[in-house]
Design a protein that fits this description.
Shape: globular
Strand content: 25-35%
CATH architecture of the domain at 301-604: Alpha-Beta Barrel
CATH class of the domain at 301-604: Alpha Beta
CATH topology of the domain at 301-604: TIM Barrel
Largest sheet: 10 strands, antiparallel
Radius of gyration: 26 Å
Number of helices: 12
Number of strands: 41
Length: 709
């Protein structure tokens, strides 16, 4: 059987050893049933079908039931191509049955024309008693073969492979990306913090081959990534496995019950780091992110934040504001070019009831919604729907109705136990009530119980089952239902400022909040790492302005460039105490960048190619440079922009910026935002000779706009 479509191909062989070959873009991956094992046979990133002697025998997935690894005993059942997904992805299903245990596995593989493939397992208990899933890696096997000395570490390297991954997530540093040499033997990267500032994501580079693997696990709890580096004087090779993890059994499977594992998104790319990252960005855009109406995409947002004490500091209000102060901030939002106003944390008195504080909002929230719409703004609302705990004091909302009437619903840290069907129904119905009552245009979800560790476990059918698997099955399903019921609603997740930026959560929301780390330059370092994993347009960044947050009053333009030129803009903290105090000059700067964003950047943002110049590169991590330099270009090289910012001490006051996304055969008009001046420059000069951008002061910056003539 063989079917073809543009950029994808699926070929199967039924006998003597069943085999499946996947081709997406130039990436080829082959799996075969060999002596009762389902094995990954080879990867190739250049579109070449390998010779037979280059085939491997390592397990393509790992499954442990009742603490026994089911590596052998697999037999072929069937292979079919399912109907294409709603996004047009090819969907292939291969089914196996185990001869030693009554377990069946259906392997689902999606191809979308990028070098990144998606894989998850469907596991069925075919026995007459419950079994415990104690460990699972939906994808495993060999990434690069054992090779002879010709492909051992190249000259100048004492290692064959380098691992890029997020570090320091247990300290609140999501996106803190760094590289490490891969030593011989085992390397383990894992999260045991439960909900934390992490993302189960890695990039591995072969120093000899000039190839990369890039990978996400779509999972929002604990996880484990393991590598085995074969590095000997005469040969090198690399194996891996990735999957969710827990101390207790992850899932109890009843007789005839079928469960689905989290998906692994794995890509093999021949080329540089830019090409690899762009492949993952395109894959996420095509196959992961939920659809959204274009007219409600990437809008300029304004929020008078409660949790950063903005209203308390600048208005003398309680943190959650009052009707008067919020109306004043709606006026400010309209004055500086915003398109969405978000009422942030603290508008209630009792966490868990989600009823406006009657003394501060005596008329409820409806007048604020009406006023925002009258000013031409959409209206969004913050609710931490999964918990009944005070967002600012950490005190349990015992006076809330749900806590009073159903104390058995509440887990540690005020988390509502979604593994109970009645709790899941309540949470979803309460969320629908809020959306309907206030005619919401945007819903902002927060989740602040960090860290949750192993989380609770529940006795189930003779096993002590970890709650995470069932919890996230329900969590994901709730927001899939919300998407379908409210197709025009913008869904934004903001878990503790970047604590749920894995693809499991990101795939159910339109936007992801990047960080509560408002200080510069850390927010830029976080951004430079996180955008290796996620496309820039889905991120909203909490970027404070003011000397107390690391930005002096003389760097308003740097603040606004970082806000408007990196991702979906989100304005907060320090626009002005009031409209009356908003000077024409200051308002003019906001409107200047809002106009650049609306007219130039936003049309390109959702399809742009991104280029990481500094601090993160193919060799260096987030703390490797005092420069922050990011470039964005349309896929055809017709337009682009770049932000160059001096974050700290550097060897020189100048950065030689050499664009990578332009066409050397074209001529470009370059606009220098600091002066407003323009120059017409040949593309090849820009690319090969570069532009020296001098920034003497720390936290000073430049914004460059490129347009082909």
């Amino acid at each position: 059987m063989k079917e073809k479509s543009l950029l994808t191909d699926i070929a199967t062989i039924d006998t003597p050893e069943p085999e499946v070959r996947f081709t997406s873009d130039r990436t080829i991956y082959v799996e075969t049933l060999v002596s009762g094992r389902w094995a990954g046979r080879y990867w190739n990133a250049s579109g070449r079908i390998n010779f037979p002697y280059q085939r491997w025998t390592e397990d393509a997935f790992q499954l442990e039931v009742d603490q026994e690894l089911l590596s052998t005993g697999w037999q072929w059942v069937s292979a079919t191509e399912a109907p294409k997904t709603e996004r047009g992805c090819r969907h292939f299903v291969a089914e196996l049955s185990n001869t030693t245990h009554s377990v069946g596995v259906r392997m689902h593989t999606l191809l979308d024309g990028t070098p990144v493939l998606t894989r998850w397992l469907e596991i069925t208990n075919k026995s007459d008693k419950p079994v415990a899933l104690t460990a699972v890696s939906p994808w495993s096997g060999r990434l690069w073969p054992r090779t002879d000395a010709r492909l051992s570490p190249p000259k100048g390297f004492d290692h064959a492979f380098s691992l890029g991954y997020f570090t320091r997530f247990d300290q609140g540093y999501e996106g803190w990306f760094d590289w490490k040499p891969m030593p011989g033997g085992a390397t383990v990267v894992k999260c045991d913090k439960g909900q934390g500032f992490d993302d189960p994501f890695f990039i591995v580079r072969s120093e000899a081959r000039g190839e990369y693997f890039i990978c996400h696990l779509a999972w929002s709890a604990n996880w484990d990534i393991q590598f085995d580096c074969e590095q000997e004087p005469s040969s090198t090779g690399l194996l891996f496995k990735i999957g969710p993890s827990s101390v207790s059994p992850q899932r109890v499977i009843m007789p005839d019950e079928t469960i689905h594992t989290p998906a692994v998104h794995l890509g093999h790319v021949e080329g540089d780091l830019d090409t690899t990252v762009q492949a993952m960005h395109e894959h996420i855009r095509r196959s992961v992110l939920p659809p959204r109406p274009p007219e409600r995409s990437y809008l300029i947002q304004y929020s008078a934040t409660g949790d950063q004490n903005y209203l308390a500091t600048h208005r003398g209000d309680l943190a959650g504001g009052t009707e008067e102060s919020i109306i004043e901030n709606i006026d400010l939002a309209a004055a500086v070019g915003a398109e969405v106003f978000i009422l942030d944390a603290g508008w209630w008195d009792v966490p868990g009831d989600w009823i406006p504080a009657p003394e501060r909002y005596p008329r409820g929230l409806e007048p604020l919604v009406e006023y925002a719409h009258k000013k031409g703004l959409l209206f969004g609302l913050y609710v931490e729907i999964e918990r009944t705990l005070s967002w600012n004091t950490g005190e349990l909302g015992l006076s809330s109705k749900v806590a009073t009437e159903h104390p058995d619903w509440i887990m540690p840290k005020g988390i509502l136990n979604l593994t109970k069907p009645e709790v899941a129904n309540y949470v979803e119905s309460e969320l629908c009530r809020i959306i309907d009552q206030y005619s919401l245009d945007l819903y902002r979800l927060d989740y602040n119980p960090i860290f949750t560790g192993e989380g609770p476990s529940t006795p189930r059918d003779g096993f002590m089952e970890n709650n995470y698997w069932r919890y996230y099955e329900v969590f994901y399903a709730i927001f899939e239902h919300i998407q379908k019921k409210y197709p025009d609603l913008i869904l934004q997740q903001a878990a503790a400022g970047g604590a749920r930026n894995d693809l499991g959560t990101v795939g159910r929301f339109h936007e992801a909040y990047l960080t509560d780390g408002l200080d510069m330059p850390r927010v830029l370092q976080v951004y430079s790492g996180q955008t290796l994993a996620l496309p820039p347009e889905i991120l909203v960044i909490g970027l404070g302005e003011g000397s107390d947050l690391g930005l002096g009053d003389g760097h308003l333009d740097t603040h606004l460039r970082s806000t408007f030129a990196l991702s979906t803009p989100w304005l907060l903290l320090g626009v002005s105490p009031s409209v009356a105090e908003l000077t024409p000059q200051r308002r003019g700067r906001y409107l200047h960048y809002a106009n650049i964003y609306k007219e130039f950047i936003r049309p390109l943002l959702p399809t742009c190619k991104m280029y990481h110049h500094s601090p993160v590169t193919s060799r260096r991590g987030v703390e490797s440079s005092g420069w922050f330099v990011m470039e964005y270009a349309s896929p055809d090289g017709d337009k682009g922009w770049a932000v160059i910012l001096r974050m700290g001490e550097t060897e020189s006051d100048s950065f030689i910026f050499m664009p990578r996304g332009l066409d050397p055969g074209r001529t470009y008009r370059v606009t220098f935002d600091n002066t407003g001046g323009t120059a017409t420059i040949q593309g090849w000069r820009l690319i090969y000779e570069g532009l020296p951008i001098r920034r003497e002061a720390v936290m000073s910056s430049e914004l460059l706009l490129f347009e082909a003539q």
